[in-house]
Amino acid sequence: MSVRFAKEEELERINVLRRQVNDLHVAGKPEIFKPGFPDELREYVRSIWNDPDKVIVVAEREGEICGFAVLHRIVRPETPFMFVRDYLDIDEFGVDEAHRREGVATEMIAFIRAYAKENGFSRIELNMWEFNREALAFYEAVGFSTYRRYMEMQI
Ligand SMILES: CC(C)(COP(=O)(O)OP(=O)(O)OC[C@H]1O[C@@H](n2cnc3c(N)ncnc32)[C@H](O)[C@@H]1OP(=O)(O)O)[C@@H](O)C(=O)NCCC(=O)NCCS
Fold first, then answer.
1. What does the alpha-carbon distance between residue 33 and residue 121 come to, in Å, rounded to a whole number?
2. 52 CA to middle of ligand 1, Å?
3. Distance, CA 87 to ligand 1 centroid (Å)?
4. Under a CB-based contact definition with an 8 Å cutoff, are residues 85 and 73 in contact?
5. pTM of the prediction?
6. Ligand 1, atom nearest to 96 Cα
7. Which residues of the chain have pLDDT under 50?
8. Ligand 1 center to 155 CA (angstroms)
9. Nearest partner of 70 among 9, 112, 22, 27, judged by Cα
10. For position 127, what pLDDT does the model report?
């Protein structure tokens, strides 16, 4: 398997994987996520591709893209409360349903860590939905820890 940056002609296939992640979010949080995969969401991959602060990483096995990640450099200016923050955010992340528990995501995280280090980042960050226990188990398995929480109360 190889992990590398995506090519433009792979955006269609990446959308297949993006849809799997979206469907999971719709099932888990239907009051927040729009169902289906409308053109707007399909086309959004182009905005990602054209954004100079974002890169798309893919995992390829036997000629097939089986995982993807969208990385986003975020710079937040200093505020009265906080120092400047400059970090690498994992905006989107997923492995094809047919290729889970084969170590694909673990290899993508190793690639992302190396990329972050080479580019001078001292932190990688991501946010995830609480219902997604499988993703939490994965992120913890590869070394992420929770440092902040979003809470809600249904009325
Ligand atoms: C979360 C996800 C990316 C993990 O990808 P993966 O390639 O299957 O993960 P790996 O095979 O590298 O797993 C490494 C370790 O993480 C943990 N892990 C991964 N998936 C897990 C699961 N479903 N349940 C419990 N632990 C899990 C295990 O410790 C695993 O090691 P093991 O297989 O030797 O037990 C994948 O399940 C996925 O794409 N889910 C849907 C999309 C999603 O939730 N994306 C992230 C949120 S935006």
1. 31
2. 29
3. 23
4. no
5. 0.97
6. 39
7. none
8. 33
9. 112
10. 98
Q: What is the pLDDT of residue 87?
A: 98
For position 16, what pLDDT does the model report?
A: 98
Q: What does the pLDDT read at residue 94?
A: 98
Tokens of 136: 């939490």
Q: Does domain 2-141 fall into CATH 3.40.630.30?
A: yes
Task: Determine which residue's CA is closest to atom 17 belonging to ligand 1.
Answer: 138
Per-residue model confidence as pLDDT tens digits over 14-44? 999 999 999 999 999 999 999 999 999 999 9
Pocket of ligand 1 (CB under 6 A): 21, 24, 93-95, 100-106, 128, 132, 134-135, 137-138, 141
User: What are the boundaries of each domain within the chain?
Assistant: 2-141
Ligand 1 atom nearest to CA at 102: 11
Q: Using only C-alpha atoms, what is the Rg of the chain?
A: 16
Q: How many whole angstroms from 104 Cα to the centroid of ligand 1?
A: 9
Amino acid at position 64, single letter: E
